[in-house]
Write a structure and sequence with these properties.
Order of helices and strands: HHHHHHEEEEEHHHH
Distance between the termini: 21 Å
Helix content: 40-55%
Strand order of the largest sheet: 1-2-3-4-5
Strand content: 5-15%
Largest sheet: 5 strands, antiparallel
Structural class: alpha+beta
Length: 291
């Protein structure tokens, strides 16, 4: 289930292409909910690398990390690691394509005050807003059996209790729980194709100064500079180093801890590849930030 707010067509196409590319590499021919969009089918047929000024370095790092084992990570062979790379790299490619003067190119803290917020990982408040927008876009949709895909349940006093979202097959995929006092969303639950439930609250987004978010902001900033006219080889090298550090020092270690915890506790903590492909960057960051 994707919780992104409505995006311009070009951005949707970029996300669809990255998801299709990941499916192609991982042997996933369709999304969890059913048939793919036409744009995603086109992406499968083309199999193009990442585009824009950051495209070559992002594709080179992907090959080094997953095809050549250059990062020596214990989870590099796990298909979920490559999907996470694809989703983060897609975001960084977009940041570079828009340049440092766009909302996506400004700092994460500055982006928080921008109305559009662009591609910057959001706060809990922004995450909830995007999730609500995603659910609302499906409010009038019916599943394959003719049932409503969005169902609202109220307390006896009339206050909204929860909002449930089903996929096109009628399977429960998301739930928004509302606080009875503040009437604000207090928890977001996502259900993967395997039935595993992930829960997000304001605490899931971690401290703003967490290691993962510090490295993420540095990678975003350096990639944004690549969108400036006349970006130098030094900019290229700095961007490459920052993306390497993001994955080697923060993302992959966090994923390793979660996968080890999966083995220790005998339960799934990281969604399967087909569900990760449909997750937005903010969902993936929130998942790994708590590791």
């Amino acid at each position: 289930v994707s919780s992104a707010a409505p995006r311009p067509h070009a951005r949707c196409a970029l996300g669809a292409l990255a998801r299709a590319r990941a499916r192609s590499r991982l042997g996933l021919v369709a999304c969890a909910g059913g048939a793919m969009d036409n744009e995603e089918e086109d992406g499968l047929q083309g199999g193009e690398p990442f585009s824009g000024p950051a495209g070559p370095l992002l594709e080179d790092l992907r090959v080094q990390m997953f095809d050549q084992g250059g990062f020596c990570s214990r989870v590099a062979d796990d298909p979920r690691a490559e999907v996470i790379y694809e989703r983060i790299a897609e975001w960084l490619a977009e940041v570079a394509d828009q340049g440092p003067d766009s909302p996506a190119g400004c700092s994460v803290s500055s982006a928080a005050s921008s109305p559009s917020r662009a591609a910057a990982p959001p706060s809990w408040t922004e995450y909830v807003r995007r999730t609500q927008a995603s659910v609302q876009r499906r409010a009038a949709s019916l599943d394959a059996r003719g049932g409503p895909r969005v169902v609202r349940t109220y307390h006896s006093g009339g206050a909204l209790w929860r909002v449930d979202l089903a996929d096109w097959q009628g399977r429960h995929r998301a739930r928004l729980l509302y606080d009875a006092t503040s009437l604000e969303v207090s928890e977001v639950r996502l259900v993967g194709g395997s039935g595993e439930e992930l829960r997000y609250t304001s605490e899931s987004f971690g401290a703003k100064g967490s290691l993962l978010r510090v490295h993420l902001d540095r990678a975003r900033s350096s990639c944004a500079q690549l969108g400036r006219s006349g970006a130098s080889k030094q900019h290229q090298q700095r961007a490459r180093q920052s993306v390497e550090l993001l994955f080697a020092a923060a993302l992959l270690p966090g994923l390793e801890r979660l996968i080890q915890k999966e083995a220790d506790e005998g339960r799934q903590l990281v969604p399967p590849s087909e569900d990760l492909i449909e997750m937005d960057v903010e969902q993936i960051v929130a998942l790994l930030d708590v590791a």
